[in-house]
Amino acid sequence: QVQLVESGGGLVQTGGSLRLSCTASGRFSGTYAMGWFRQAPGKEREFVVAVGWRGGENTYYRDSVKGRFTISRDTATNTVYLQMNNLKPEDTAIYSCAAGPWPLARATMVIAWGQGTQVTVSS
């Protein structure tokens, strides 16, 4: 069983920045990708970003966050970080860390979820 613990999130104004982190423990496979999905009120959950755990820094971003969000990983601590810059009100959502096989672009590929953290961007 894999456990994911998130931290970060909060309230910022438009154009501000936040950083999320997620640490994996338990039966975490070195072949798993890690990343984030988000769900805004009244909307379906959507993929945001993922990073491959082996084979180099493979990353995959949804188009709307490219150039603003950056994912990175620390293999020594099984931790991934999401730096979110130039935040917009439409980024407001609950962000959930996820782990599973690459490219982790669909919720059906996720084998473990974090507890979720609220990101709110005020206009």
Task: Describe the secondary structure blueprint for this structure.
Layout: E1 2-8, E2 10-13, E3 18-26, E4 33-39, E5 46-51, E6 59-61, E7 69-74, E8 79-84, E9 93-100, E10 112-113, E11 117-122
Parallel strand pairs: 2-11
Antiparallel strand pairs: 1-3, 3-8, 4-5, 4-9, 5-6, 7-8, 9-10, 9-11
Describe the protein:
By secondary structure, the chain is mainly beta. It is 0% helix and 52% strand. It contains no helices and eleven strands. The N and C termini lie far apart (40 Å). The mean pLDDT is 93.
Separation, N- and C-terminal Cα atoms: 40 Å
Enumerate the spans where pLDDT stays under 50 for 5 or more consecutive residues: none
Order of helices and strands: EEEEEEEEEEE
Q: Would you tell me the structural class of the helices and strands?
A: mainly beta
Mean pLDDT: 93
Question: What is the share of helical residues?
Answer: under 10%
Write out key terms for the chains shown.
seven-stranded mixed beta sheet, 52% strand, 123 residues, four-stranded antiparallel beta sheet, single chain, mainly beta
Q: Summed up, what is this model?
A:
The protein is mainly β and 123 residues long. It has strands at residues 2-8, 10-13, 18-26, 33-39, 46-51, 59-61, 69-74, 79-84, 93-100, 112-113, 117-122.
